[in-house]
Amino acid sequence: MAVYTEVGSEALAAFLEPYALGRLTAAKGIAEGVENSNYMIETTQGRFILTLYEKRVRPEDLPFFIALMRHLAAAGLACPQPVAARDGAVLRRLAGRPAALFTFLAGLSPQQVQDWHCAALGSALARLHRAAEGFPESRPNRLSVAGWQPLIEDCRAGADAVSQNLSEELDEAYQTISAAWPRTLPSGIVHADLFPDNVFFLGKQLSGLIDFYFACTDFYAYDLAVCLNAWCFDGTHSYVPERGAALIQAYIRERRLTAAELQALPALAAGAALRFLLTRLYDWLNRPPGAMVRPKDPREYLTRLRFHRIARGPEAYGFAGC
């Protein structure tokens, strides 16, 4: 979440008029995240999240995301639900951008990730994959292998100023990872962006998953690899095997991993690290002036990428068999 587009109180009140949600009482921009503009909206009937879609979200993909969230909620997964206006419309426009209103999920994102957070996440991730099995739509992952080379070219001019010889390292990583990328693994709908700030907890209970705007059709194990990157490195950017073990074992209790999926983890984790390194690098080099957004340091994912490129098998991630 972030705020790229500022919206005044009068425009927000006018946007809410077609909804049966009472009167606007408060609104606050949310600075966390990097992709869309988000506001916490309070009305006389409760709290809601308003999202204005920007950057990498394509308007033609929005019905897919809306339908997926409805499908997952119907299957029992706690995730935001789109709020329809009186005429039944969910997607509208605000400040020249597509916009939608969502239910508010209670909970807090973990500030200090613990093993038990990772276990709860692993279970929820597997349940998400299983819940989405009956979803009839699909969407390609445009930030997988085919999308990396264009991002490398977009970042090439400024890459070496961020880290010495980074442009050359990106080229080498792309060649190595794309050559090792698996071709046939179990696949379906994945979240593809399940970072700690997209997972809420109430006490020690996972209370909800948010931000489905990178959801797509890809390998289930790729989604697990994204989470290994996002949750299993500590503040010094060192991998924590205990977190990885908790994540993988909890996932396996809900959905078994094949031997091929486990063996592919180093390549998938390296690919996930490269994907987030590239998008963070692009955002670092192309921050819009005046935007209320905190660009994330791409060098964190350079460290992760280097770890994955020397990993050998699932044991490197804390997996000891089951």
Indicate the CATH architecture of the largest domain: Alpha-Beta Complex
Quaternary class = single chain
Strand order of the largest sheet: 1-2-3-5-4
Q: End-to-end span in angstroms?
A: 37 Å
Would you identify the CATH H-level superfamily of the largest domain? Aminoglycoside phosphotransferase (APH), C-terminal lobe
Number of domains: 2
Proportion of residues in β-strands:
5-15%
Rg from alpha-carbon coordinates: 20 Å
Q: Structural class of the helix and strand makeup?
A: alpha+beta
- CATH fold field value of the largest domain: Aminoglycoside 3'-phosphotransferase, Chain: A, domain 2
Query: For the residues shown, what is the average pLDDT?
Result: 94
| SSE order | HEEEHEEHHHEEEEHHHHH
CATH class of the largest domain: Alpha Beta
State the major sheet. Answer: 5 strands, antiparallel
Count of helical segments? 10
Helix content: 40-55%
The shape is globular
Number of strands: 9
